[in-house]
């Protein structure tokens, strides 16, 4: 799994946040292709590619829920 982090993303503030998110996502879908954390959206590429706009206060768990949604729906 590749996690691309863009400047000013609201999820990752430091390296510890990165490793926590990576571990959380790996538990859900170890074969996920990539996740891009941009300033205003997260882009998840698993079997398909989906873009999600961040809510007001996004978190690592919110990103994990988006990946879980994609896995459960075969996306």
Whole-number average pLDDT? 96
How many runs of DSSP E, i.e. beta strands? Answer: 4
Helix content: 25-40%
Tell me about the largest β-sheet: 4 strands, mixed
Record the strand order, biggest sheet.
Answer: 1-2-3-4
**SSE series:** EHEEEH
SS content category: alpha+beta
Q: Regions with pLDDT < 50 over 5+ consecutive residues? A: none
Span between N and C termini? 16 Å
Count every helix, treating DSSP H or I runs of 4 or more residues as helices: 2
Strand content: 15-25%
What is the overall shape?
globular
Rg (C-alpha, Å): 11 Å
Outline the secondary-structure elements.
Blueprint: E1 2-5, H1 15-28, E2 34-37, E3 41-45, E4 49-53, H2 60-72
Parallel strand pairs: 1-2
Antiparallel strand pairs: 2-3, 3-4
Helix pairs in contact: 1-2
Description:
- The protein is 36% helix and 24% strand.
- The chain has a 4-stranded mixed beta sheet with strand order 1-2-3-4, with helices on one face.
- The chain has 2 helices and 4 strands.
- The chain is of the alpha+beta class and 75 residues long.
- The two termini are 16 Å apart.
- The chain is globular and about 30 Å long.
What features would you highlight for this structure?
24% strand; four-stranded mixed beta sheet; alpha+beta; 75 residues
How would you summarize this macromolecular structure in one to three sentences?
Strand 2 (34-37) and strand 3 (41-45) form a beta hairpin. By secondary structure, the chain is of the alpha+beta class. Helix content is 36%, strand content 24%.
């Amino acid at each position: 799994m590749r996690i691309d982090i863009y400047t000013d993303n609201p999820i990752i503030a430091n390296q510890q946040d990165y490793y926590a998110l990576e571990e959380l996502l790996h538990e859900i879908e170890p074969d996920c292709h990539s996740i891009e954390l941009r300033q205003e959206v997260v882009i998840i590429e698993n079997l398909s590619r989906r873009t999600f706009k961040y809510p007001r206060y996004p978190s690592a768990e919110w990103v994990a829920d988006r990946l879980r949604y994609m896995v459960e729906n075969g996306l």
